[in-house]
Design a protein that fits this description.
This protein is of the alpha+beta class. It has 2 domains: 51 residues; 54 residues, no CATH class. Helices cover 31% and strands 24% of the residues. It is built from 3 helices and 5 strands. A 3-stranded antiparallel beta sheet has the order 1-2-3, covered by helices on one side. A two-stranded antiparallel sheet has the order 4-5. A hairpin with a 6-residue loop joins strand 1 and strand 2. The longest helix is centred in the C-terminal third of the chain and has 15 residues. The chain is elongated, with a radius of gyration of 24 Å. The two termini are 37 Å apart. 5% of the residues are buried.
Length: 124
């Protein structure tokens, strides 16, 4: 849902309120807020329309994977893990229960060790 509205705020130590026109919208799965003091309501509506036109169409989520394929991928990534044999044994127990059911890759989140626990983020 997208909406155009006016935002008002006070600067500490000043009496006058400041106002800005802008919009709030969900675009490509992210919430976008843009407000400018020089915009009028028409300008904000024009900018909202431009932002919505640049929106990417939603991709069909047909990329699915079976639990057996996800297990093979996981074992390939975790070959050096200390509990590798235990993980392999556990996955062998899960395979017959899942059958040929397909899952989305997001529900079977498989991460390498470098991306787990924020290792790829800089710490400061």
């Amino acid at each position: 849902m997208a909406q155009v509205n006016q935002r008002a705020w006070k600067v500490p130590g000043q009496r006058a309120k400041r106002k800005a026109w802008g919009f709030t919208a969900q675009i490509n799965g992210r919430q976008i807020r843009r407000y400018k003091t020089e915009w009028t309501q028409d300008d904000a509506e024009r900018e909202l329309a431009a932002a919505v036109l640049q929106m990417e169409p939603e991709r069909p989520n047909d990329a699915s994977i079976t639990l057996a394929a996800a297990a093979e991928r996981y074992l390939g990534l975790k070959a050096r893990k200390r509990t590798f044999t235990e993980d392999k044994r556990t996955l062998e127990h899960l395979k017959p229960r899942s059958g040929r059911r397909r899952y989305s890759p997001r529900s079977l989140r498989i991460e390498s060790a470098s991306t787990r626990h924020g290792a790829s983020r800089r710490r400061g």
